[in-house]
Amino acid sequence: MAYKRQIDRLPIIPADAKEHNVTCHYCIVGCGYKAYTWPMNRQGGTAPGENKFGVDLSEQQYQDTESWYAPSMYNIVKQDGKDVQLVVKPDVNCVVNSGLGSIRGARMAENRPSTVTGTQQQRLSDPKVWRNGVWQPTTWDDALDLVARVTARVVTEGSEDDLVVSMFDHGGSAGGYENTWGTGKLYFESMKIKNCRIHNRPAYNSEVHSTRDMGVGELNYAYKDYELTDTIFMVGANSMETQTNLYLNHMVPGLQNGARFIAVDPRRTLTISSAEQFAGKENVLHLAINEGTDMALFNAILTHIVDNGWTDGDFIANSTFQSGEAVAQDEAHPAGLGSLEYVMETCRTSIEEAAAICGVAAEDIVKAAEWIAKPHDDGSRRKCVTAYEKGIIWGNDNYRTIGALVNIALATGNIGREGGGICRLGGHQEGYYRPSDAHVGRPAEYIDQFLIRGLGGVHHIWACDHYKTTLNASEFKRVHKRRSDMVKDAIDAAAGGTREQVVDAIVGAINAGGLFVVDVDIIHSQIGQNAHVILPACEANEMNLTSMNGERRMRLSERYMDPFGNSRPDCLIAAGVAQNMERVLRDMGHDAYADQFKGYEWQTEEDAFMDGYNKGNPDVTYDRLRAMGNNGVQEPVVGYENGQLVGTERLYSDGTFDRHGRDDRKALFCAAGWRGWQAPGKAREKAAHKFWINNVRANIFWQNQFLDQENDFVQDRFPHPFVEMNPDDMVDLGLNPGDLLEIVNDNGVTQGMAYPTATAKRGQVAMVFGSPAGSQGNVVNPGVNELVLPDYKHCWGDIRKIADATPETRAISFKSKEVAL
Ligand SMILES: Nc1nc2c(c(=O)[nH]1)N[C@H]1C(S)=C(S)[C@@H](COP(=O)(O)OP(=O)(O)OC[C@H]3O[C@@H](n4cnc5c(=O)[nH]c(N)nc54)[C@H](O)[C@@H]3O)O[C@H]1N2
Ligand SMILES: Nc1nc2c(c(=O)[nH]1)N[C@H]1C(S)=C(S)[C@@H](COP(=O)(O)OP(=O)(O)OC[C@H]3O[C@@H](n4cnc5c(=O)[nH]c(N)nc54)[C@H](O)[C@@H]3O)O[C@H]1N2
Ligand code: SF4
Ligand SMILES: [Mo]
Q: Which residues does the UniProt record annotate as the domain Arsenite oxidase subunit AioA/Iodate reductase subunit IdrA 3Fe-4S cluster (predicted)?
């Protein structure tokens, strides 16, 4: 039965349905899918020649048949102006997912906007401009003219530093090589914007500066390394829920081949519970450390490995820097970098010290070190894949903590080898191709604080909603709204005036402290409530889009439907902004500046791709990628031979390291000295409050729920953001399952629903991040590291009940999420 879709049968895909390659545009894994489209008035038949699967569908199909699709994989969409039937189903021939879907990807079809089935009618179809007290729908020309006129006035009367930009830097949904190039060319080539930030952090910087400074790019393995390894060492990640098919299709086979699994996470995750089932409890080690103490653990593991001689001497001698300090600690480097001996002076930590700091048993730390590095009985080295994500990236002392983890992989030579790698698991896919960002500087400006301080006059926002997802969000929202309202009031007061008079009024309000906001999104988001101009973008598959996944596998995900209404690809919106800037600046008499906005004559996203990515990678074209299908090619592409793009399975397989740009191509170790809570305010907050407010993702939700908020399948499951907590803590607070609660601290307040979880430690709750019905970011303090990396994960507050369970929360299941398979 289709979930509330009133469908009791679905059409058979006809044999001649059009077939399109699709890469799931949600998470980093980038699973391969096939989209099939065919006219409304037709469907296939049961005879093998009449259906796409080429099988006799009148016969009972076996359990794991490919000749099947779920209701969530079906919809009716527009293609070349006509309604067509659409099925988007996992591709059994894609090596990434081998036919597996996930609860997110397998809903791609039903999450398409459809005027026939009524799905995703929240999608924006036309530009909107704040006028006459409301958002008036309007044309692109009208909206872009206003954006350009206000932006041009502000950057010419002041400077480009008055334009603040928030922009995606990823692949997949809201990104890709086309769109990062479009926005990158606009802001980094035509202009030199330095007050910019990335969708997920309040500055324009790297999530993983230290590994790069050490020479090790963060996506260096192949997914099949999980199948070839002895040990999977997972830190601060919950891959079953967040990189689902990487876990199911690569890590699980590894576990079934006998690999051991070490998980470092203060919380017992569903990944741990699942790994225990596949590998056996005796092969799974959960180090449930105190929050924020990872660095001490890594240093103790490293020390134990070094002291026992389990290091890889040849690798260290040949591939790593030998003579002491290579890079001194300074403003741009929160730790010194150099040889192993050099960093051991700082990193040396005994098992006992680490056990005390981390709150785990000494013998478990020893066991972890053994599972990672103790040679096999025959003397051969152990292979270990190390993988990490937001538990330490958005964690305590980002630079040093990630550095300490990379130290272990370097010391054991587990990089660039089969069954090795030290990698980010990743969030979105990647798709970064932009002109140099060197003008931004390091440390980069802390943009949220810049805006809060009343600086900047114009704010361009591309595909992010800081209302739900930034830190210190309560304060950010208060100030952003106040500044935006000043401009709205000025526009309202100038109602009926000419365009010039309205622009004058806007600029006047900006000069008085207001902020003019342009929001490029696919829906009218929460931060979009503050916008004066809203520009409708289209998503992947409503345009062609290229991205790479967590093993650098690049694919072309093909357009199979029209953009909704008059929405456009982000790259073409950026081109529209540039063309209008050129025209307006010329009108204003700034000819030389206007000339900088030339070169955007793109008709299609492919033109943007050729202008950007292809210029740096001339072998790679749409046609060649299309021919490589859903298996694509692993970047970097090194040639084109016999009709095939030639890629790179693993980085650093020659034992040389270049991510830091050093001529000696030697990797550096990181002097990761433990210093307790690094970000300002964290230690004080922890001392002042009863609960650690861990914040996490969950399988069913994609990101800030921009498509889920209008989807009853998702909202019926979690009508309010869940706050997992120990049942005894609930008793103390007088909370029943599903009761509404609020979390309070000095930064703000947020609300959620009590979700009893027997495995949750006392005094530790886990709230889903980014919810439209309760932003966890409201209670995260503004503390960041020296390079402006936020520590979202470490936040403490008090909890009180607001209300009894609602009829909706009363109706949901509170059974344990740990399912036995
Ligand atoms: N289903 C789903 N999948 C997604 C996404 C989604 O929204 N939904 N988003 C994608 C994106 S953009 C990203 S960035 C990734 C994130 O992927 P993950 O990093 O795997 O996800 P999170 O749940 O944010 O955090 C992972 C874990 O960090 C732990 N943690 C908290 N504090 C600490 C600590 O001090 N030390 C350690 N070791 N662990 C800690 C939490 O308990 C949590 O289990 O997921 C991607 N995949
Ligand atoms: N407390 C806490 N906060 C966090 C995190 C955490 O773990 N804890 N994690 C951080 C991380 S890793 C991330 S990635 C961020 C996510 O933070 P955001 O990037 O703000 O969240 P998303 O949900 O990815 O937002 C995507 C927005 O883009 C729009 N969109 C989707 N597709 C398109 C498109 O093709 N074009 C355009 N123009 N718009 C589109 C959506 O409607 C939505 O409004 O949150 C960060 N914030
Ligand atoms: S695992 Fe990630 S890429 Fe694969 S189907 Fe799920 S959301 Fe999409
Ligand atoms: Mo992310």
A: 24-119
Q: Model pTM? A: 0.98
Q: Whose CA is nearest to atom 2 of ligand 3?
A: 27
Q: What would the mean pLDDT of 609-626 be, rounded to a whole number?
A: 98
Instruction: Assign 1 a pLDDT band (cuts: 50, 70, 90).
Output: very low
Supply φ then ψ for residue 231, to 5 degrees. Answer: -145, 135
Regarding whether 588 and 448 lie in a shared domain, the answer is: yes
DSSP for 692-725 reads: EEEEE--TT--TT-TTGGG-HHHHHH-SS-EEEE
Nearest CA to ligand 2 atom 30: 463
d(CA 483, CA 152): 19
- For the CA of 105, the closest atom of ligand 3 is 5
Please give the distance, rounded to the nearest whole angstrom, from the Cα atom of residue 663 to the centre of ligand 2.
37
Q: Which ligand is nearest to the Cα of residue 743, counting in written order?
A: 2
Percent of the chain with pLDDT over 70: 99
Ligand 1 centroid–CA 426 distance in Å is 9
pLDDT at residue 2 tops 70: no
For residue 722, the enclosing domain spans: 682-803
* Residue range 93-99: mean pLDDT, rounded: 98
* 456, 376: one domain: no
Q: At 76, which CATH number?
A: 2.60.40.4210
Q: Where residue 64 falls among pLDDT bands split at 50, 70, 90?
A: confident
Q: Which of ligand 2's atoms lies nearest the C-alpha of 707?
A: 42
Angle at 753 between CA 747 and CA 759, to 5 degrees: 100
In sequence order, which residues have a C-beta less than 8 Å from that of residue 369 and are 6 or more positions away?
300, 301, 304, 305, 308, 310
Does residue 589 sit in the same domain as residue 467?
yes
Domain co-membership, 765 together with 798: yes
Distance from Cα 712 to the centre of ligand 3, integer Å: 20
Could you tell me if residue 666 is inside a domain?
A: no
Hey, what amino acid is at 786?
E
Average pLDDT on 653-672 reads 98
